[in-house]
Amino acid sequence: MTAIELKGVSHVFDTRKTRLEALAGIDVEVRDSEFVTLVGRSGCGKSTLLRIIAGLLRPTAGEVRIGDAPVRGPSRDVSFMFQRSALLPWRTVFENVMLPVQILRLDRRTYRARAEELLALTGLEGFEDRRPDELSGGMQQRVSLCRALVHNPSVLLMDEPFAALDALTREELSLELQRIWNEDRKTIVFVTHSIQEATLLADRIVVMSPRPGRIARTLDVKAPRPRSLGVTAHSDELDRVSAELHELLFAGHAPAGGVDSA
Amino acid sequence: MSATGAAAAEDVLGVPSRTRYGSAVLRVVLPTLTFVALIGGWWLGTIVFGWPSYLVPTPFEVAEEIVDQRELLMSNFWTTLGEALLGFALAIAIAVPFAVAITYSRVLELTIYPALVALNAVPKIAIAPLLVIWMGFGLGPKVVMVVLICFFPIVIATTTGLKSTPAEIVELSRSLSSSTLQEFVRFRFPWSLPYAFVGLKVAITLAVIGAVVGEFVGATKGLGYVIVASGQTANTTLAFAAIVLLSVMSIMLFYAIALAQRLIVPWSEEQQR
Question: If you write DSSP's letter for every residue of A176-236 in order, what string do you get?
Fold first, then answer.
């Protein structure tokens, strides 16, 4: 089953001063319950593509379908997670997690149990009544993840969700996300700059090249799960993929910044 | 979720604690020192320069006057406080819808905003005598003066607040298909409150000034009237007593708003630190 389908998606940002071709002719298919990571250098249109899938941005050309329906705008079946936690400072952790239930006018009692379950799953038990500013960055992103999952969407779009965290917390959260996904197989599109994160999490890695944003390559990661960052039997496969990613991302870009833009 | 459980978790995960030792003591001691120094300086001035009582009375004479004339002063205190609070409340009631209109409509922003700036540029004190001509010596012109003075800071601060909602919060709201009303009630409005309170704190002290200005140009009661009347009889001590009470009023109102802020938007201190 195809969960997300993009056909010939192009996007141009047209302002009075500049015309920026952000995406050109993107074709991607994401299967149900697949974990796809979207990797590329800054400015290659990864976030733009994610917003188009989310229905937050209408593409200049091309078609996006989620499930069977074409995307016309945001849908309750698609959840979005940001680089910054975007928690509401006046709400407690629990109230923040319940926000989608409230906005979408879902049954509070049914989803209360799910919220509690998610908080337990992410190790936030006992923090339900805290306010976001009392939590560390890693814990805030955990709350944000719970909020993105509480109304049980089928697709989760993640825009560099761990990029603002320190390296160790980042690894910890990647592993946690893998564990949660393993228990509850959402279709995930995960944008990242980190090769390690991309390789660890993905069933398939979509590599993008900049100006305009195109799909350069798609790589399958066949290593078995659960994967870890320690020494494992399948580390050869992960090493191979990450080496290939390095080559792709740095190819023709001798000094970072890109020769082709000059 | 027991308190001890939460406390233990706090230690393990290094969640920052809110209490800073000694800050509570300093918060009382330092402002008190300021006031002691001010009053001490005033007293010292009367001794060193030998100012006579009919020009500058000593702090003790003023304190004595406040006690002796407490009935007269307090009844006028309530009058001025009433004018200030009524005008302040009206200013909020008018300013907030204006701020919402400016935030949500580009056309209204372009039409109303320059008019507001122009209105604010008019020295309000210059209008005071006209208000007396139009509205007489009653409560009306004082309240209008307070509204005119308070309005601008509240509109500016609230508009800034409503426009300051971070991009990802707006996207979050959109990704959940919030209605415009939901977006306002659940996201924008609460987000604007810490900013709005900055405007309210400025406005509340201006409210007292507005009421006194209104009383100066034509009144039969209020602390501003007491000051004008005591000037005509050269009762400097009574004028000083009224001024002291006006300061007390301003300070109390300011801290009342600060307290309201702490109760209504407890997260704002974190945001503005």
Answer: HHHHHHHHS--EEEEEES-HHHHHHH-SEEEEEETTTBEEEEEEE----SS--SSS-TTHH
Q: Do B267 and A104 touch (CB under 8 A)?
A: no
Whether A42 has its CB under 8 Å from any CB of chain B: the answer is no
User: Which residue of A lies nearest to B265 if distances are taken between CA atoms?
Assistant: A90
Instruction: Tell me the pLDDT tens digit for each residue of B55-78.
Output: 889 899 999 999 998 999 999 999
Give Cα separations from A142 to A50, A86, A97, A158, B271 (angstroms). Answer: 20, 12, 10, 13, 21
Residue A133 in contact with partner chain B when CB distance is under 8 A: yes
* Chain A residues inside the 8 Å CB shell of B164: none
Q: Which residues on A lie below 8 Å from B174 (Cβ)?
A: 56, 74
C-alpha distance from A111 to closest chain B C-alpha (Å): 16
Give B16's contacts in chain A (Cβ within 8 Å). 134
Identify which has the larger pLDDT, B17 or A58. A58
Lowest mean pLDDT among A41-50, A174-183, A202-211, A221-230: A221-230
Contact check, Cβ <8 Å, B13/A139 = yes
Give the residue from chain A lying closest to B175, CA to CA: A74
List pLDDT tens digits, range B167-204: 999 999 999 988 999 999 999 999 999 999 999 999 99
| Residue B23 vs residue A87, higher pLDDT | A87
Its ipTM equals 0.86
Residue contact A56–B177, C-beta within 8 A: no
Give DSSP secondary structure letters for chain A.
-EEEEEEEEEEEEE-SS-EEEEEEEEEEEEETT-EEEEEE-TTSSHHHHHHHHHTSS--SEEEEEETTEEP-S--TTEEEE-SS----TTS-HHHHHTHHHHHTT--HHHHHHHHHHHHHHTT-TT-TT--GGGS-HHHHHHHHHHHHHTT--SEEEEESTTTTS-HHHHHHHHHHHHHHHHHS--EEEEEES-HHHHHHH-SEEEEEETTTBEEEEEEE----SS--SSS-TTHHHHHHHHHHHHHHHHTT-SSTT-STT-
